[in-house]
Amino acid sequence: MSTLTVAPPRDAVTGDPARLRRALGSFATGVTVVTVGGATPRGMTANSFTSVSLDPALVLLCVGNDAVMNRVLAEADTFAVSVLGAGQEDVARHFADRSRPLGAAQFDAVDWLPGQATAAPVIAGAAAHFECARWRAYDGGDHTIHVGRVLALDELPGREPLVFHGGRFRQVVPQQPGGNR
């Protein structure tokens, strides 16, 4: 008795990066700004951020290998992640714009404050801030997976997050009391 195994066509996924991007875009994500302080501060919008562990408290973010922030994170001892809130789409767009100024000047266009544990810039009004020490970095194909140990955090309870879904920024619409359950 023989078993027939049908393999997908060669490069069925990687041969169509636009289709892969569309399919991945069906997963809603939060929107963050990752920052590093020091003599040459840097910020970057990222939506690939998640918790890893509660004990120890670890988070991860993925950064493209060709991004300046990838090199900056590899050399930094600490970094911060600001989880953007509803209404902060302009901040997300600013830190995604490759033509923004370099160094400290890139923070002139946004409200920010120095993190208490790392002095890395954190975005004012964000839903949450995580200040982290570099823990590990892993190869993730065309990205590097950066894991940080959380040193300090802050949150604005009740602050609705900014969300990215289907290639667009969106806001969570709270359900009204007595609505569908």
UniProtKB/TrEMBL annotation:
Annotated EC: 1.-.-.-
Claim: Secreted is one of the keywords in the record: no
Pfam families linked: Flavin_Reduct (PF01613)
GO MF annotations, alphabetized: oxidoreductase activity
Keyword Oxidoreductase tagged: yes
Positions of the Flavin reductase like domain: 24-171
InterPro entries: Flavin_Rdtase-like_dom (IPR002563), NADH-dep_flavin_reductase (IPR050268), Split_barrel_FMN-bd (IPR012349)
Keywords: Oxidoreductase
This protein's name: Flavin reductase family protein
Organism (species): Streptomyces omiyaensis
